[in-house]
Each structure stands twice: as C-alpha cells, then as structure tokens.
Amino acid sequence: MQGPTPQHDDFLRAYDQYADAIFRHCYYRVYDREKAKELSQECFMKTWEYLSQGKPVDNLRAFLYRVANNLIIDSSRKKKESSLDAMMDEGFEPVGAGPESATVAAEAGQMIALIERLDEKYRDAVRMRYLDDLSPKEIAAALGESENVISVRIHRGIKQLREFMA
User: Fold this and answer.
1) For residues 124 and 158, what is the distance between their CA atoms, to the nearest angstrom?
2) At what angle do helices 99-117 and 147-165 cross, to 10 degrees?
3) 115-162: per-residue pLDDT in tens?
4) Axis-axis angle for helices 136-143, 147-165 (nearest 10)
5) How far is Cα 139 from Cα 66, in angstroms, rounded to an integer?
C-alpha cells in the first residue's frame, strides 16, 4: 500500500488553509449559508478530482477560487438567489456582541451593500481583493484575466465606491 501522494498532502493543506475563506466567498456571492456550504464542498471535491488525475495546478488558492466562481455561476443560472436587500427586508440583521460590534456590523453591511451596487466586473474584483484578501495575481488566475486588467478593475471599482459614498 502506498503512502499519501504529494497532491494529497497539498490538497489537505489547501483545505485546512482555505476552506473557511472559500465558504465566505461563496456565502457573500449567494447569501445562503446552506448553499454556500454545498458550493464550497463541491469546490473541494472538484479540485480533488482534478488533482487526483495528476493534472498540474500552479496556484492552488487561485484554482480553488476559480472553481468556486464557476460553481457559483452555474448555480445562479439554475436558480436565482435572493439578494442581501431581500434578506434584510425579510428581517435579516447581522448580530453582534455589543454596541461596538453592532456599529461595525452596520458599517460592514453598508459597505457590502455599496459593493453590490458596483458594475459586476468591478464588484467581483473588489470583493475578492478586500473581502477574500486575494492578491491581484490570484484574482487574475481565478477569473482568467490578466493581472493588469484586475488591477484596473479594482482601481475603478474603488473609484466607483467613492462616488457612491459622496
């Protein structure tokens, strides 16, 4: 019986490092906890299938985000998900431990609402940069764009956010 392969070890490390981040990324795209869990699990399953076939992956983190994005897009084509505004209309309120966290939650909610107003190409880049903490290079790999294009989208998205806030 053979021991774990390098792909197996890389995959386990990636899961430990990125599972929560991939879940958050999915959640901020679909705003449904169960759907986000399902998408993040499927993301890791598809990644494992790809790696177990011996196919190379240069940047596993970027690859995971690319798989997650593709799954989110496929999912949204099947069924339109509710927006944050609709959830808030139905009584969803971010809950914190005290007045300070309530203020932070309110500000975060406002910022997320502003990000949702961005043009889609800017929204994805800004969300991945500032909510998912990915580098422009990792975002470029995840979205299949050049690093320069992503940097421009982030810059223009931030400019558009400033206009919204003015």
Assistant:
1) 12
2) 120
3) 888 888 898 898 888 888 889 998 998 888 999 999 999 999 999 988
4) 110
5) 9
What is d(CA 124, CA 29) in angstroms, rounded to the nearest whole number?
A: 9
Residues in CB range of 36: below 8 A, 6 or more apart: 23, 24, 26, 27, 29, 30
Residue 39 and residue 76 in contact, taking contact as beta carbons nearer than 8 Å: no
- Burial of 113-141, coded b for 16+ CB within 10 Å and e otherwise, reads ebbeebeebbbbbbbbbebbebebebbbb
What's 134's DSSP letter? Answer: -
Q: Are 141 and 66 in contact (CB under 8 A)?
A: yes
